[in-house]
Amino acid sequence: MDKDRIVGSAKVIKGSVKEAVGRAVGDAKLETEGKADKVEGKVQNAVGGLKDTIRGE
């Protein structure tokens, strides 16, 4: 498993937490940052998946 997949998954989780906390406390900036982290994590996870596919893992 490529390290990008691991880091990407962690960013998705972090983003979900930030988004939920931002929504709970009414902090639109924190909620937006969380959504951005989730997108970034999903992209990084996809890149890691492509690397795994290329390597044949």
UniProtKB/TrEMBL annotation:
One Pfam annotation reads CsbD
Classification via Gene3D superfamilies: YjbJ
Q: Which InterPro entries match?
A: CsbD (IPR008462), UPF0337_stress_rsp (IPR050423), YjbJ_sf (IPR036629)
**Record domain CsbD-like: where:** 4-55
Family of the protein in this entry = Belongs to the UPF0337 (CsbD) family.
User: What is the protein's name according to its record?
Assistant: CsbD family protein
